[in-house]
Amino acid sequence: MPKMLKVMDKEALLKIKERSGEVVIYAVNWDADKISNFKPYPLPKPKKKASDGPSSAPTNNSNSTTKVLELFKPSSKLTPIYDAISVSTRGTYTGAEVSQHLISFFTADPDASLIHPTNGRLITINPILAHTLLDPSVSVDAQIMSKGTIPRDQLLERFRKAHNPYYQIVKGSEPPSKPSPGSPPKILIVLEKRQGNKTMTKIQGLETFGVRPPVFAEELKKLAASSTTMQKLVGSKPADNLVEVLAQGNQEAVVEKLLDKHGISKKYISVDNKLSKGKK
Question: What is the number of structural domains in the chain?
């Protein structure tokens, strides 16, 4: 250190004196160029540890809204109508899209519109509509065919019912699930007695709504202050890898509250209360 101070003294950066073997600084030349324009030496930045960055663990979008879209897939019987408007029968469509497809069919032939010229609410029956949506062996349909017209709303309802039901799960900003056949599902809460008088709550169908059972079981454990476990869903296929969450006690209200936190409303929940031998 004394050597460095002596060099700085020679460069007129400061003035030093030696007293009893010690070096004392008694003046600093603050106007010296090396001091007034001093720039600290850049030090290398420490590397971030893996734990310092954003967590790579999957997040739980518990506050995202879950929507169940009801979709419709054309049955083979409807092929003539869809071919006439050049729309694929392999796709799935919303109710509004299905209605629009039939309306497009009404005017597919500009020279022979099926919309009644004086009453827009009436549709003229042509051979394709008669073959696909009417049954002459049924008296009501026979009367419609004899009359030659049918109210548009009635025809739209028949057309929609001739489709196969599908559904799709949309959760927050996540990519929507692949359309699945059948009616929209529900999460099932089962309340029952087990091992004597112990009450048990079982939750089934979480996977359909994109809720991970291990995550839900841990959240339920904390919220209900009750022990929770998981087991394979009885009757399910091994390839489906479906499980049910079990919790001690009657946790119906807590489960519904937690499902609501995950964006799943009550209309997608069914409760089987075996404690009172009733179902709602």
Answer: 3
